Structure formats: C-alpha cells, structure tokens
Amino acid sequence: MSVIKEPDQTLHHVLDIISDGVWDWNIATGQVIRNPGWYRMLGYEIHSFKQDVLTWENLIHSDDHDRVMGHFEAYVQGLIPEYNIQYRCLKGDGSFLWIEDSGRIVERSAEGSPQRMIGAHTNIHAQKTLQQKLEEQSKLLRGEYENLDHIIQERTKELDQLNQQLARKVEEVEMLASRDALTGIYNRRMFESFLDIEIKRAKRYSQPMCVILADIDLFKHVNDRYGHSSGDKVLVEVALTLQQHLRESDYLARWGGEEFAIILPNTATKVAMETAERLRHEVESLVTTEGISVTCSFGVTQFHQKDCGTSIFSRMDQALYMAKDQNRNTVRLIPPRPEVRA
What we know:
Pfam families: GGDEF (PF00990), PAS_3 (PF08447). By secondary structure, the chain is of the alpha+beta class. It has eleven helices and ten strands. It folds into three domains: 7-128, Beta-Lactamase (2-Layer Sandwich), CATH 3.30.450.20; 146-178; 188-340, Alpha-Beta Plaits (2-Layer Sandwich). The strands form two sheets. A five-stranded antiparallel sheet has the order 2-1-5-4-3, sandwiched between helices. It has a five-stranded mixed sheet with strand order 7-8-6-9-10, with helices on both faces. The protein is globular.
C-alpha cells in the first residue's frame, strides 16, 4: 500500500527536482532561501553561498546591475505592478547565464511594508543565444563586402589589441585616481563614492552600517622630531596595520593628512566599537621600522535611514574631536541626532 507524503515533504522534493531556481526572501530578517535547482543552474555547489540578498546582487553582470536594481526597487516601492526582468548572472565557471527573474511580494506588515517576497530564476540562455546569432546573421546578410568574414576577423583583431591597450591605460588611470599615492589605500574621493553606494545598499535592505574616523595623535611632533620622511613611513605603517585588521568587505581610505576613514558595511554599533577598540590597541602596540611609536584616536557613528554622506561626515568628525579632547588614544561614539533618525 502506498503512503501519501506530507504536503511540506512533497513540496521539498518538487523544489529539489525542478530546474528553475526558486528563491524566498524574508525581508524582515534578510534571509534568502534558494532551492538546489538555483545552484545547479548556475553551476555552484548546493548551499555554498550565504543566505542573503548580497549573494544574488554580487552575481549580476556589471552591465545589467543598475537596470536590475532600478526595476527591483521600483517594484518593492510599489511604483510598478510586476517584478519580471531578464539579465545575466555569473556562473561557477566564470561565464554568464541569461536568466529571467520573476517575483511577487506575498506578505506585508500591518502598515503595508513588504515582509516576504518569493520568485524564480528561469534559464533563458538558449533563447538569448539564438536571438543574438540570428541578429548577427542578419547583419552579415546585409553586408556589401565580398570578403566580409576576412574583414571582420582583421577588424576584430585590431579592436581587441586596441581594447587591451585601452584597458591597461584605464586601469592605470583608475589606480592613480582612486588610490592615495603614499599609502596605497583608497583616497578620499573613492571613500565618498563607496560611502554613497553603501548608504543606498543599507537603505535598500534595511541593514546596519557604521563609519569610523581615525587620527594619529600628535603627528606634528613626529614630523618635527624625526622629519617628514620618517613621518611618511609612519603613515604607511599605520595604514598597513589598520588594513590588516579589517575585513575584506570593509573600506579603508586616507581621509587627509594623518586621518583615516573606515566604512563597516552590515555592522551594528557594538561590533563597530569593538573593531575601533581593536584597531586602537593594534596601533598603540605598533613599533615602526624606525622605532617610532604612535597612538590613534577614533570617532565612531552609525547609519540611520535618513542619513546622507554629509550628516555622517559631520558626526564622525564630532566623535573624533571628542576622542581627541578626552586625552586622545581613545574611542568615542556619537549616534545620529534625533532629527536624522528614520
């Protein structure tokens, strides 16, 4: 006699069998559950990623990212009636797969805010590839050259060479434009750009974020006593010490002079204070290659939903001033003012 399986168990088997990638986002907790078909479709080990939205966002092709985020945010905010979009996702082998992403908000809070959204990723790569081939063939048929294939190959080779040269130049220019020439860490311009991105991300996913501003105490005395060359070496070694004790997801930049700014994405205030205290201790324990010891003061503030770059800059500067005013070599926190709170 056959036994009828429980509905939940049957659904579990169905989700395991189907080739489409099904996802279930709990907006309140940030957790995203994906079925095995999602991993198999993209060529990853099953359940090899963190169960959060950043996993999905980081797989989107850079040329498609802004378009997808704009569509996603418009649907979540109720500006459009449906969430359905086609884009490319990074596979485990480094190639990209065309998928169609469809989803729907299925639960809302009493106030009407989205609480849960489910959807599916469907593999449309074959259709897209066929469409692209048909478009290419159509162009060839409209060509007016007898040796079109040869001409295309030659032009493609020339363009590839030019693109490689251009890419190297762009990389060099971006390196010079984004990095501090002395310490090699990000410069202030890049820090402001990263902060703008992380503010949008924190607002989009209702995630915490903190920012730290650090300043080497009495740095003028170092320059006066040991000379500016030694002072530069101190800046380099302090920057390296800070970098070594931050996560890969954190951002470190030279804010100016002897000041360093740090972004801690998806980080609550308690963890940020612990991080600042750990960094303070590491700098205090540092003895540079020239035998110079220094300390740092740290100002910390956390992000709130109505924050902008200017309000965060202002608070982290005030927090640092408080730390400097209270005997230096310390960590101080300034939370958002009441009018900034969401």
